[in-house]
Amino acid sequence: MSVVYFLAGMVIMGGIWALIAKITKNEIPTPLATWAVFKEVMHHPFQNDADQKGIGTKLLSSLGRVSIGFGLGSLFAIPLGLIMGSSKIAMKIINPMVQILKPVSPLAWFPLGLAIFQDSPKASIFMIFICSLWPTLINAAFGASNIPQDHKNVSKAFGFSTWKYLTKILLPFSLPHIITGLRLSIGIAWMVIVAGEMLSGGIGLGNFVWEEGFNGGSVAKILVAIIIIGIVGSLLDRCFTWLQQKFSYAA
Amino acid sequence: MSQTSIIAAEEDITEIADRILEQTYSAPVSIEINNVTVSFKTPGGTYTAIKDIDLTVKKGEIVSLIGHSGCGKSTLMGTISGMVKPTGGMVLANGKKVTSPGPDRGIVFQNYSLLPWLTVYKNIYVAVDSVIKNIPETEKIKLVETNLKMVNLWEHKDKLPGQLSGGMKQRVAIARAFSINPKILLLDEPFGALDALTKSAMHIELLKLWTLDHREKTIIMVTHDIEEAIFLSDKVVVMNNGPATTIKEIVDVPLKRPRNKKDIVYDPKYMEIHDRLSNLLIDKFSIDDEH
Questions:
Q1: Is A43 exposed, middle or buried (0-12, 13-18, 19+ CB in 10 A)?
Q2: What is the extent of the structural domain holding B177?
Q3: How far is B159 from chain A (nearest CA, A)?
């Protein structure tokens, strides 16, 4: 049944799209015209020549940067968030920094990364790293600071070691919150990578949108890229939703 | 063999009774509460929960703390478990001053306090593993198994607490407390959240476990249920209402064991104790009572 609803949604979206194409007198290409370009783009998706790269190669390159930045960011944010949530003093020291740095647009970090690394792909990774920190950090801290007194009592009553407390109470309780944070982070990271690659050039989806789409004068290619970015982003989100369900438990 | 039986036969019944009495009175002290006061700092000033409490509990005794909600009975219990630090006086448990929770005192919490992400088996194993360090893993596994079988939950060992009923969860919590083999067992309103039928079954279950262990564990239980207190206890400690709660009266329950849930209510001694406790705790018995 949900497939039917999904298809209905797609049909409505295609209808609106076709209408816009008609109003703009094909300035915005029709779904069918876009489909033709899509097939063309997908002809050799993993072509990897020096002067000609397929869309798949670009996608993988973007995903690679996102994973490195997001991975490093999470490795940093999870422990720091747990420390923040476990200690009031750590919270008071770290929280003001987070509050000041969090609202800064990820794009503002890009030139700083460029200045530090003198390399635009590395600067992109740096930007992803920074922007994947905050949701994970804040959610991990929230999880750790909300451990019910009941669970802490168990640890006290049975004299848990620090290690046991960490692995049997702190981590399992915070895990669903951490995953929520990761899910938000990966969403932001995926949004930011496109913008970053537009700024930095190099191989990637952002570069495809800018160079082949806009500079190449093909609106259809821009649309193709938007669709691919959207689908990949929603798949990433699905992965973390699945993880969330896997690690939720009834009290 | 035959010699001992002859000697036993020759002994006067009263003599045996005297000896048992003497043994009872000379039973070693398990818990000694000396002049304990607990105050908390609140925004509105200092709040004294319990004041100048003195209480001695002998080894193998079951003692109930009973009183109205918020009277500080859980606080008093907390000073024995080590969860609450007294602001005045001190508590001795097994001859040692209580400063923190310890493996000689097993605790069963009101809301079971099982870790929801661990199976029944692992909930107990983690406690055993934490408390009893100097035995091999196989013995730890055996301890968990024995205690889970004792509360008839072995077939549910792989379930998560969320999949169990309230009574089953409480049995897991009791098995967990027994599995670390503490000298003192502290039960904080253990059956408060259970329905009357389950509660009744749990009383028998608890006495069974206590008897299997040769009635050597001292049990302190917080409750607000008069029948439960009488059925289980040797002594019922009645608390005044807070703040600055003191002990109102200690009522002895000299009913012989094993006790029978159905018959005990017809025992004149039971009725007398029930009456005494009702008068101490309830000040209105009908709508006509002046207050």
A1: exposed
A2: 110-181
A3: 12
Last residue of a domain, one of B143, B160, B181: B181
The helix or strand, by DSSP H or E, that contains position B269, with its residue range, turns out to be: helix B268-281
The verdict on A111 and A194 lying in the same domain is: yes
CA distances from B107 to A11, A116, B89, B119 (A): 62, 56, 22, 19
Copy the structure tokens of residue B101: 């929770």
- Which letter does DSSP use for residue B266 in this model? G
Q: Along chain B (291 residues), what's the average pLDDT of each consecutive run of 10 residues?
A: 52 71 73 93 90 93 92 91 92 92 89 92 95 91 91 92 90 91 92 85 90 91 94 94 89 92 92 93 80 56
Query: Is A150 buried (19+), middle (13-18) or exposed (0-12) by CB count in 10 A?
Result: middle
* Chain B residues closer than 8 Å to A150 by CB: 109, 111, 113
Determine, yes or no, domain membership for A251: no
Residues A136, A223 within the same domain: yes
User: Three-state secondary structure along B130-157?
Assistant: HHCCCCCHHHHHHHHHHHHHHCCCHHHC
Q: Could you check whether the bond before residue A148 is cis, i.e. omega within 30 degrees of 0?
A: no
Let me know: does B105 contact B127? Beta carbons within 8 Å.
no
ipTM of this complex prediction, to 2 decimal places: 0.79
Residues in A 232-251 with any Cβ partner in B closer than 8 A: 249-251
Say if residue A223 is in the same domain as residue A169: yes
Min Cα distance B4 → chain A (Å) is: 45
- Dmax over CA atoms of chain B, in Å, equals 73
Residue carrying structure tokens 């981590």: A171
CA proximity to B38, closest of B9, B76, B81, B83: B76
Please tell me whether residues A8 and A83 are part of one structural domain. no
With an 8 Å Cβ cutoff, is B117 touching chain A?
A: yes
Residue A211 Cα distances to A22, A36, A250, B255, angstroms: 26, 19, 50, 92
- Total number of domains in chain A: 2
B116 vs A153, A160, A249: nearest CB:
A249
A154, A168, A249 member nearest B160 (Cβ): A249
For residue B240, give the DSSP letter: P
Among partner residues B106, B114, B126, which is closest to A164 by beta-carbon distance? B126
Contact A251 B162 (CB under 8 A): yes
**Domain C-terminal end among B152, B181, B210:** B181
